[in-house]
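Tokens as discussed.
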């Protein structure tokens, strides 16, 4: 269940009280430990919670981070009757969720997202995972949280770049919903929204994702729509880590949306006006993904590892128009390179 609240400490306390867990374990990173844990510390301490903290940053969503969580669960005597509370952004909900999914073949989780990215995407839908050998989320499992508690008060701890990162996922949800939702999001800037407006927009975005996830919980079909922007986006994010010019996940997704809307125009009849609207929003707001023609081979190699692929072909989620989704669209190499050219020339 997803709850959007103005009293996350009270909601969390009620969940922990009402479910009868025999142990509470909290996963945070260095940032959320300092900035967000104090907001719910009293509720957690009342239930004897043990806290394990991972170094901040997606590069720490790896075997070392996973082992750290497992070791905390073992040393704390966690059982299948315990709960893992993932308090943080997407790195924390992914890694903590995967640790819980694999420990004793499944420990229950509660997600308390503290970033916009996690609130509208990573904390919802049951996807968990870790990076492996430089590839994003290469190892993972579906493990649905019992509760997701969203309080936009946490967003006051974020800078503009992180707000925009989460907003890229909201733009994706808007594109999947239809033109009205998409252009409504393009007319706003997350750094200028007050908490009341943000709560409403987050609720709308979460609702879009929940409807898709409920229809296809294990990504056999329509849930692949949620990968819009991510085939290119994940490749750019992994490439940025390889080249030591790391960009935030949502900034890579924004670049991926530009590229994949261009592919949608070329292959599915998407109106170029929609593509230009996305370009105009991304340009000047989002970090520019740094790559050149010489990097295309590496980017294509990274795309080839995308989980939507089959038979050695790179598949995409594309749109014929906002709200009209086409999944498993094969795109040949020259056209993918053309989309990368389009991004470099226009963004």
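Sequence:
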């Amino acid at each position: 269940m997803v709850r959007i609240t103005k009293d996350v400490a009270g909601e969390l306390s009620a969940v922990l009280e009402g479910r009868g867990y025999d142990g509470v374990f909290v996963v945070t990173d260095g940032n959320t430990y300092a900035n967000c844990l104090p907001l719910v510390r009293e509720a957690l301490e009342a239930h004897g919670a043990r806290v394990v903290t991972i170094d901040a940053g997606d590069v720490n969503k790896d075997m070392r981070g996973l082992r750290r969580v497992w070791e905390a669960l073992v040393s704390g005597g966690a059982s299948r009757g315990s709960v893992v509370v993932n308090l943080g952004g997407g790195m924390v909900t992914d890694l903590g969720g995967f640790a819980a999914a694999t420990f004793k073949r499944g420990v229950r989780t509660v997600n308390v997202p503290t970033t916009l990215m996690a609130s509208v995407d990573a904390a919802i839908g049951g996807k968990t995972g870790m990076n492996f050998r430089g590839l994003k989320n290469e190892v993972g499992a579906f493990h649905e949280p019992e509760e997701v508690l969203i309080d936009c008060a946490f967003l006051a701890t974020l800078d503009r770049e992180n707000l925009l990162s989460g907003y890229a996922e909201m733009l994706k949800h808007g594109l999947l919903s239809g033109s009205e939702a998409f252009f409504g999001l393009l007319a706003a800037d997350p750094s200028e929204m007050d908490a009341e407006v943000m709560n409403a927009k987050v609720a709308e975005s979460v609702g879009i994702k929940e409807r898709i996830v409920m229809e296809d919980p294990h990504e056999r079909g329509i849930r692949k729509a949620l990968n819009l922007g991510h085939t290119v986006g994940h490749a750019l994010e992994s490439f940025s880590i390889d080249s030591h010019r790391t960009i935030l996940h949502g900034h890579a997704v924004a670049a991926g949306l530009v590229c994949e809307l261009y592919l949608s125009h070329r292959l599915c009849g998407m109106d170029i006006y929609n593509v230009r609207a996305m370009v105009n929003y991304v340009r000047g707001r989002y970090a520019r993904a740094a790559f050149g023609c010489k990097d295309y081979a590496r980017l294509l190699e990274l795309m080839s590892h995308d989980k939507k692929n089959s038979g050695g072909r790179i598949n995409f989620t594309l749109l014929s128009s906002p709200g009209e989704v086409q999944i498993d669209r094969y795109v040949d190499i020259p056209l993918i390179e053309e989309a990368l050219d389009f991004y470099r020339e226009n963004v």
